[in-house]
Amino acid sequence: MKKLLLILALAVGATATQAAPPKAAILKPGTWKGVIQRPDGKQIVFNFDVKQTNGKKVLYVLNATERLLVDDIRQEGDSLWITMPFFDASFATVIKPNGSLEGKYIKVSGERRFEIPFYALPNNKERYPITPATRHNVTGRWDVTFGEGDKSSKAVGEFQQAANGKVTGTFLTPTGDYRYLEGGIDRDTLRLSAFDGSHVYLFTAQLGDPNEIKEAVFYAGGAGKENWTARKDANAQLPDGFDAVKLRPGESKLNFRFPATTGEQIGINDDRYKNKVVIIQILGSWCPNCMDETKYLVDFYNKNKSRGVEVVGLAYERYTEFEKSKQALAGFQKRLGINYPVLITGVAVSDPQRTEKTLPQIEPLKGFPTSIFIDKKGNVRKIHTGYDGPATGAHYDAFKKEFEGLINELLAEK
After folding, report:
1. Is 185 in contact with 130 (CB distance < 8 Å)?
2. Are 185 and 133 in contact (CB under 8 A)?
3. Which of 4, 90, 344, 373 is within CB 3.0–4.6 Å of 83 for a Cys-Cys bond?
4. How far apart are CA 159 and CA 131, in angstroms?
5. Contact 241, 175 (CB under 8 A)
6. Domains and their CATH numbers in the chain
7. Where are the beta strands (DSSP E) in 284-340?
8. Segment 65-117, tens digit of pLDDT
9. Kind plus residue range of the DSSP H or E element containing 184
10. SS3 assignment, position 274
11. Phi, psi (5° rounding) for residue 246?
């Protein structure tokens, strides 16, 4: 009888084991290491925090001091989709039995779609290996050249290195900065990366001479690659952003009318802008520096519209069709809380005649973002190309001081 009971118990236990439901796939809370795996073997690494907020999973992409909220996360079984808030970028992944993620990073750029292998490891704060007591120190200001010959371009690198070898910083260019870079030095190798959905960047350099960098490569996205060099120079400078674009001879005012994303036709000569100081923001939803500038302008407009300040956005998207451009801008406007009109020019950013077709009164636009300052009489007073965002530290503070000083001057005029 005892043997029979034992056999029955084992049989029941076996049946219960077979009937047990599979363990649910869970996106684990904590800090993760995300890896975008380029075909050439280079890994663009970033970190993100997963948290539970108001009953739903969200994550924060981490780049130096930036925490970029991503709250569009959808799960079905072990399949997980993560949609970035900007730049038409997303991840399609599977939660593996060990808790890691595996799948693809997907980026849509106009009519083109890119897919790059991606994986992520939970409970992993490492970005790149770091040598704690490295003999190299890249802290300081650097005169940087990207590319070679006629295709080269200038930049200024500014880096801060901690005692443990961790490095943060950015590159400033005439049209904006490379936002928040983070990485470190492993023996003789510097690695800095950034990921925000649009910036998918890795900068590497072999270090030797303390005042010069010669063997360095910039990797962008799935295939972009460019050499760069740098020389330490505390006085390295870029051209003044106010000199890049000017009014054409004989011109003093703008004259445009485009549909806003609401469908309303709006022009610079409308009554709402008369006797006002107006900032024309040249932007695109694909532009990371435009995102940083928009955050600033939204806050500035809230605080100063009662003083007689207006802001108008002119969007140059990757499409000429109104509905496609409107859709591309929708997430940008919603996430940033844009509280001023955004007009769709209907001219693609890639069009070499984009300025002539939309703002023929000024010289060709050199970059995004660009800001045009208009006084109370409707005259163009200043045009500024580029934007030094919050990742640039003291440069961002200087920008705000100069920007607000100019607006105060224009408001004080009769």
Report:
1. yes
2. no
3. 90
4. 17
5. no
6. 30-122 (2.40.128), 140-232 (2.40.128.120), 241-412 (3.40.30.10)
7. 309-315
8. 999 999 999 999 999 999 999 899 999 999 999 999 999 999 998 888 999 99
9. strand 181-186
10. coil
11. -135, 170
